[in-house]
Amino acid sequence: MISHNSILKRTLPMLMQCAEAHRKPRWLPVAKSKIFRIPKRPVISEEERIELLRINNNYKTQMRAIKRFYHEEMIKEKSTLESASSEMSQQLEAEEWERCVKINDTWNAQIAAEREERRKKELQEMEEFALARMEAKDKELRDRIAKASEEIREQKKLSSTFITPENLEEAIDKALANPVDYNFAIDLQGQQYLGRDTPIPTKEQKKAATNN
Amino acid sequence: MTTTVIKYVGRTTDFKGKTLWEIVGSLKNFGVGRIIVRSVFERYPEPSFMKIVKVETCPDEERRRVRVWVEKTFRGKKLEKLTEIYRTSYKPDYKLIPKHEEANLLKSIKDVHDFPDVILPRTIEMPPLMKKFIMKDHENKGMENLKEYVMPLSYNSSPNRVARIAEGDEKPTVQFTMGLGKPASPSLYEGVPLN
């Protein structure tokens, strides 16, 4: 449940209003409530009408003259440009072309030199990287061989104690002579009593043992 | 045909009369030879009217329109060519002149205009900023400065044109300038210093 205080102390108001004017977007048709509205016809006095007409006519005449002037100028400029390009400036254009080709060649040479240098550097880096990798691989192999030979040596040392067909009888005799019993019992104190036949002391015996 | 009472609804209009088809469609032989008037052109003191020469009806999709060729007299001047009325034939602005008034209307045309001949200038002075701009431009390009900063005027062509454009060295009767000009109704500019 929302407390009365929390409503009073809220940061945002419960109802919000947009400050912008409420307007119909341009592309919507006339609102239903405005279909039969007839806008009032503006009333312009005769004096004002005449003056506005005169001013607007003046403006249109002036603007037409200016537009025509610039339009004609543009056409003139275009035609002069075209005529110039067709006759006299062909040589100029050829010279310009030559110049551009020269500049282009120098740029190409410069870029080629840079590229060569970069290629060399890249190749060297690649070689170094490959060498380092090969070395690492070699080292790893060597390590592995060393480890394996160590293992072999250990196993060889151990092999003297292996049971072979020659000393099989002896081993059996030895095992029979020394039987090993892995069974054990455990009491509440966690003491282990190894062997199946080990006698387990009674409570009294334990007490006596502790008293002494 | 009984006259219909017209009740106007909605926005007001300057037009007054009927559409051309409403007039022509109810006349014998589509009203060839009769005289019609557009009420908008009645604002001029000189008579303006049109005599129907030929009528062509339109398909059903264009039921408000009709194609009519007329001999047009505009501001007391008869045009040489026939005028076709099609695009504006739907406008409810045409009036039929009764037969007994036709003679009067034709008589009212005078051989000489009662308005003074207007001769329009061919050139206009450039606006001040444009003048300076062009001066600078010419300086930059190393060209000679112009003697007078004028540019040609262009007018919309219309068969109804009353004013004449000056030919050769003719002196125009009106001058167009790049300023406010002489106000048509000075009472609006009271207390405003002009120039």
Commentary on this structure:
The complex is a heterodimer of chains A (212) and B (195). Chain A has 212 residues and is mostly helical. Chain A has a domain at 46-87. Chain A has helices at residues 4-8, 46-86, 89-158, 168-177, 203-211; strands spanning 184-186, 192-194. In chain A, strands 1-2 form a two-stranded antiparallel ribbon. The longest helix of chain A is centred in the middle third of the chain and has 70 residues, at 89-158. The radius of gyration of chain A is 55 Å and the shape is elongated. The two termini of chain A are 76 Å apart. The mean pLDDT of chain A is 88. In chain B, strands 1, 2, 3, 4, 5 and 6 form a 6-stranded antiparallel β-sheet that branches. Chain B has a two-stranded parallel ribbon with strand order 7-10. Chain B has a two-stranded antiparallel ribbon with strand order 8-9. In chain B, a hairpin with a 2-residue loop joins strand 3 (67-74) and strand 4. In chain B, 14% of the residues lie in helices and 19% in strands. Chain B has 2 domains: 20-107; 119-179, no CATH class. Chain B has helices spanning 20-24, 99-107, 128-141, and strands spanning 35-38, 49-56, 67-74, 77-78, 83-85, 94-96, 119-120, 123-125, 150-152, 164-165. Chain B has 195 residues and is an alpha+beta fold. The N and C termini of chain B lie far apart (62 Å).
Protein topology:
The complex is a heterodimer of chains A (212) and B (195).
Chain A: H1 4-8, H2 46-86, H3 89-158, H4 168-177, E1 184-186, E2 192-194, H5 203-211
Antiparallel strand pairs in A: 1-2
Chain B: H1 20-24, E1 35-38, E2 49-56, E3 67-74, E4 77-78, E5 83-85, E6 94-96, H2 99-107, E7 119-120, E8 123-125, H3 128-141, E9 150-152, E10 164-165
Parallel strand pairs in B: 7-10
Antiparallel strand pairs in B: 1-2, 1-6, 2-3, 3-4, 3-5, 8-9
Organism (chain B): Papilio xuthus
Keywords (chain B): Ribonucleoprotein, Ribosomal protein
Protein name (chain B): 28S ribosomal protein S34, mitochondrial
